[in-house]
Amino acid sequence: MMNPQIYISADETTFHLTNGEFSYILHCLPDGHLMHLWSGKAVRPEADYTCFHEVFPRPMTSCPDADSWYSREHTAQECGTFGSSDFRTPAIEITHPDGSTLSDFQLTSWNILDGKPALPGLPAVYCEDSSEAKTLECILTDQKNSLEMVLSYTIFRDHNVIARNTRLINHGDAPVYADTVQSLCLDLPDSDYVWMQFSGAWGRERHLRNRTLEQGIQSVGSRRGHSSHNHNPVVILRREHTDEVQGEALGIALVYSGNFLIQAEVDTYDKTRILAGIHPDGFRWKLEPGEQFQSPEAVMAWTDQGLNRLSQTFHGLFGRRLARGCWRDRPRPILNNNWEATMFDFDEESLVKIAGKAKECGVELFVLDDGWFGARRNDKAGLGDWVANPELLPNGIAGLSKRIRGLGMEMGLWFEPEMVNKDSNLYRAHPDWILEVPGRTGCHGRNQFVLDFSRKEVVDAVYDMMCHVLDDADLSYIKWDMNRSITDCWSHALPADRQKETAHRYILGVYDLYERLIQRYPQILFESCASGGGRFDPGMLYYAPQAWCSDDSDAVERLSIQYGTSYAYPLSSIGAHVSEVPNQQVYRNVPLHTRANVACFGTHGYELDLNSLAPEELEQVREQIRFMKDNRRLLQFGTFYRLSSPFEGNVTAWMVVSEDQTEAIVGWYRTLSHVNQPTSRIRLQGLHPDRQYTVMTEGRHPYRTHAPWGDELMHMGLITSDGLSGQVETRDKYYGDFDSRLYLLRAVTPAA
Ligand code: GLA
User: Fold this and answer.
1) Which residues contact residue 371 at a Cβ distance below 8 angstroms, ignoring those fewer than 6 apart?
2) Ligand 1 atom with least separation from CA of 369
3) How far, in Å, are 79, 141, 280 from residue 145 at the CA level?
């Protein structure tokens, strides 16, 4: 790719952002409105693209210009507004002092910046060096109402994406209300797309769903106060024949963790408007004179080389230019979390026993989960009181962490900073610190209530409690949980006409607390969590480079969850653990090797008491950990390819390849065993076609006697068939259902 460029036509009406592979072009129309001309494969910079603006007479068309048939309804807009000839859902809607909602934003000036400015208080992708990106800021003005809107577009050298955000400033002398401020508005010239969304519920997050775009509106969103288990703020639009290895696709991701909407509106002329931003329902932001509103960032990614390439674009951007801090590029520690081992039933001695066995097996980090603080012996009390319970931990967290460190391990701790039980000292001292509507009975979720993080004093108080623990003990990891959706979203601190700001202000409070903690404790690795993957979104990655993927730790269920997650999120971000059998969520008995073979395509930890395993199982765990330590850089930071989908069949397969294409690991998983199956092979991806690779199974058995070439493995495929009864010929054990294998590929060193 070439350095990012922004070409501007001589008459300063056309702006062409390109990196040589991808172009994004916008054009200022005679009425000052910004029109979208193109987003897709790079085209040559031309002086004039006006022929792409199709204007011709149509019945029932409304036209703002007395002398032409130009209608905003039939023009691709960069920021559509409603009510003056565009009838589609608007990207921006403002109630002005006179009560009207008509806006007329015209381009008045523009700036080009090297690099990319940060978004204050919000997560956003960034550059490490200003040569990596160029940013175009278009400044538009609604003169009647003295409002300014800044549309910001960043193009990157190394990623085929546009990052986009919207800022609104009130220069008038009366307040206005922003009813919707979308981060992205993308009007596409056709609707020949399959819409891919990542949806589910608790325990089955980010399952892939496909549907063909149709005339009308289709959308995913959340009004739960968090991005949610139900719908992820990422949507992919692919052409009908696009698959993992070829074809055109574009991805839309919102870098935000609260209420959101991603919507496609196909009009009856088969043109598509994509909107992405804060969900307009329940949102209204008051802008006093001089105030501004900054939208979250949206990212649009593009490829013409298939879905794997689109995912790799997201992985590169989110893993290296959204995640931050010293953990961003470091292989992640192998941890043992006590939650599924003990739930609330533990004390210092039992924890040290679990940690001791974990250490023996090679685990590096012991994580103490829920239940260590206040009166928290079950989920009815104590939440919000971030002081160690002396009955369980007589020496506090500091004492426990000293013992864990004495074993030669790091220690991590669970917090749920945003929540409170009513049976807690915090709630008794500050009953008005929760979100609730006076005079109404608020809903609980898991017996807990939501602290009003839109208020600085609430965030300050939680910060102080957390710092007290963190300053005292030697911790290197925090699991930040959030275990209920937000209801009764009303703040005691806001006036009536600002109540619809509460949900967004809440998320800004969450981001503020995260930011303060990571600035103060830059060495700590944060893992976000929301009853599993209820807030697994790009926004969180800016603060916590990994996220607990799901409370469903069953390896077979995890295949779908992790496969769906991989469409947008890098493997280094996917929290995945080996847990006990029968599994606590689905009661399934998956062999230990398969549980590990799934977890290693993520951060790989253990969510059980290793003391409960038989000696031969412990030996297997030791080997798994040795393997992970040897290969985690490749597994977590290699180039990832999906090969065979659990959403389509009985076999799941995926692989990672090192950047220099000398190493690769293939994960192969068969859910049910069937007798006398057809032979099968899987075509690998991303290998060097001219190099020869040795192929071993994870037991270090040679897989085939000769070293195949990369082209052979990618085109003819890797044979994965077993013998007739399901056994792997190189293994001494036979498995039935839920079998899996890892294939390790190493390039043969070319002869000198
Ligand atoms: C949530 C998390 C779990 C665990 C429990 C503790 O469900 O997702 O991993 O931390 O809370 O209460």
Assistant:
1) 343, 344, 346, 377, 392
2) 10
3) 17, 9, 22
* Active site members: 481, 551
Ligand 1 pocket by Cβ (under 6 Å): 339, 369-370, 414, 481, 483, 529, 531-532, 548, 551
Q: What is the pLDDT of residue 670?
A: 95
Q: Whose CA is nearest to atom 12 of ligand 1?
A: 370
pLDDT attached to residue 725: 40
Domain 335-421+462-485+525-631 has what CATH class?
alpha beta
Q: Which atom of ligand 1 is nearest to the CA of 607?
A: 9
- How is residue 517 annotated by DSSP? H
**Buried b or exposed e, range 453-465, using 16+ CB within 10 angstroms:** bbbeebbebbbeb
Question: With the C-alpha atoms ordered 225, 228, 230, 234, is the resulting torsion angle positive or negative?
Answer: positive
Please state which of the four CATH numbers 2.30.110.10, 2.60.40.1180, 2.40.50.140, 3.40.50.1010 is assigned to the domain occupying 644-747: 2.60.40.1180
CATH code that applies to domain 5-321: 2.70.98.60
For residue 349, what is the enclosing H or E element? helix 348-361
Pairing status of strand 335-337 against strand 216-222: unpaired
Residue given tokens 């074993």 in the structure block: 407
- Which residue, 107, 112, 77, is CA-closest to 92? 77
pLDDT at position 705 = 64
Measured in residues, the chain has a length of 752
Q: Which tens digits make up the pLDDT trace of 194-220?
A: 999 999 999 999 999 999 999 999 999
- pLDDT of the residue at 731: 55
**pLDDT (0 to 100) of residue 733:** 61
Best residue among 383, 481, 485 to mutate for probing ligand 1, ranked by most atoms within 8 Å of CB: 481
Say how many Å lie between the CA of residue 531 and the centre of ligand 1.
Answer: 5
- Beta partners for 93? 180
The residues spanned by each domain of the chain are: 5-321, 335-421+462-485+525-631, 644-747
pTM higher than the cut 0.70? yes
Which stretches of the chain drop beneath a pLDDT of 70? Answer: 698-705, 722-734, 750-752
